[in-house]
Amino acid sequence: MDNKTDTYKTVAKPSEEILFKEKKSKFYGYAFPVDNEDEVKIIIEDLKKKHSSANHVCYAWQMGIEQLSYRANDDGEPNNSAGMPIYGQIQSFEVTNTLVAVARIFGGTKLGVGGLISAYKMAAKLALENSNIVEKIVQNQYKIRFEYAQMDVVMRVIKQKNLEIISQKMEMNCELIIAVRKRDSEQIKDIFVGIYGVDIT
Predict the structure, then answer these.
(1) Are 16 and 10 spatial neighbours (Cβ–Cβ below 8 Å)?
(2) Alpha-carbon separation of residue 182 from 63, 161, 167, 173 (angstroms)
(3) Are strands 69-73 and 56-63 parallel, antiparallel or unpaired?
(4) Is the domain of 129 the same as that of 31?
(5) Which part of the chain is the Impact N-terminal domain (predicted)?
(6) Quick check: is 2 in a domain?
(7) Stretch 105-119: mean pLDDT
(8) CA nearest to 199, candidates 139, 118, 144
(9) Do 143 and 125 sit in the same domain of this protein?
């Protein structure tokens, strides 16, 4: 990702459960926002408890913004018949930091690999269509240190550039932590570097 594309899409919150039926098999689809693999493990364990009669809980996730990582898991279904079709939908919706899981309850009729691929793909697609997908901005955080006398100058820049203050300590020696949109960060850093008596890291 270059500095111009400093936004990414993700699901805002866990989706509602969706149900897709194929030849009496039931496929329950879900989408979740995730930031790490530990969260994925907990969610999958919860889904396995919730659908204790499910034969398989298959899933895929993608995380990261500049460096993407992903995993697809077939959970005992034939190779690449579940996890990869789910992952394909994550790619087609262009979301990251997102987990899509599908719990399958077997209905007695075998679907064959082709049938499985299309059923898992459809359940994943419905789960993502049913999600609130939001665009987020990638931000860098900076710590600014300055003496109380520089307060007006610093605050003027923050106001003009519409910067977000994450935290502040206002004493004789002041300290601010600000969030800056990634594509603007070099420019903003240069402005503060150019102000006498202001230290930015």
Answers:
(1) no
(2) 18, 13, 19, 27
(3) antiparallel
(4) yes
(5) 23-128
(6) no
(7) 92
(8) 144
(9) no
Predicted pLDDT at 2: 43
Q: Which domain holds residue 18?
A: 7-136
Q: Say if pTM beats, i.e. exceeds, 0.85.
A: no
128 C-beta neighbours (distance < 10 Å), count: 23
Mean pLDDT for all residues in the chain: 91
> 17 and 93, same structural domain?
yes
pLDDT of residue 121: 97
Q: With 60 as the cut, is the pLDDT of residue 1 above it?
A: no
The residue with tokens 């992903």 is 70
Structure tokens at 20: 């897709």
Q: Strand, coil or helix: what is 54?
A: coil
Q: Per the structure block, which two tokens stand in for 173?
A: 């020696």
The answer as to whether 1 is a domain residue is: no
Say whether pLDDT at 3 is over 70.
Answer: no
Q: pLDDT tens across 84-110, in order?
A: 999 999 999 999 999 999 999 998 888
H helices within the chain, ranges in order? 37-50, 83-92, 112-129, 151-160, 185-193
Six-digit token pair at 184?
A: 């603007």
Classify 1 as helix, strand or coil.
Answer: coil
